[in-house]
Amino acid sequence: MSSAPASRGGQLALDLALEPDYRAASFAVSEANAAALALVNRWPRWRQGHLLLVGPAASGKTHLAHMWTERTRARRLDPRRLSAELRGVGRGEAVLVEDCQAGVDETGLFHLLNRAAGDAGVTALVTGRGVPAEWPVSLPDLVSRLKAAETAVLHEPDDALLRQVLEKLFRDRRTPLGAGVLEYLLMRMERSVDYARHLVAVLDNMALARKGPVTRALAREALAALSGPERGASETPTPGREHLDE
């Protein structure tokens, strides 16, 4: 278990400052993200010189983008100032533009995709939520480009992925687990890798304070604390996962 203080004044410390872990080694792979990971890793052999990486919130877009940037030394561009920032992009550079689902500089994005598809030697990874063809853009040429673009799709984290994440996080912290704890958490937790990291940190603190393993009772308490006073702990499994508690 980690040695961080577990509580302040007897209260559970929920404001744990966790730095995001974007290392390639910490990226858990399952059917929810394997195809997208393979497409991102195909760089620089993308068909059009650019790739759209899309998925719901907390599906792993930022993690994959960081991994790609680390590999390519890509330059990050502001989606709202693309036209201006593109002027400083030279031949052979890789660029990353994140969160393009709303408020993007449409003319700039169109010119970026054109440069990547042409012979300028530029490669671009563009991320956003939802289907690119449904992004609220009005420039007709950009709409056509988005519809035709090679796209890597991340899906909501599935149980297999979240189990991998939980197991690794608990193992890294050397946190002892009671029987059935993982199944209990998987049925009730938010479907997010970021949430899983926060949940494990809270449970590790609680177990350290009480000098024992993480039990189902402790898991129930942590879930209630993280859900907020207005919601409380749910004893009802997430729909479709009731069988996991058998």
UniProtKB/TrEMBL annotation:
Biological process terms from the Gene Ontology for this record are: DNA replication initiation
UniProt GO MF annotations? DNA replication origin binding
Which InterPro entries did the record assign? P-loop_NTPase (IPR027417)
The superkingdom of the source organism is Bacteria
Write out the GO cellular component annotations. Answer: plasma membrane
Its protein name is Chromosomal replication initiator protein DnaA domain-containing protein
Membrane-spanning residues: none
Q: Where is this region: Disordered?
A: 225-246
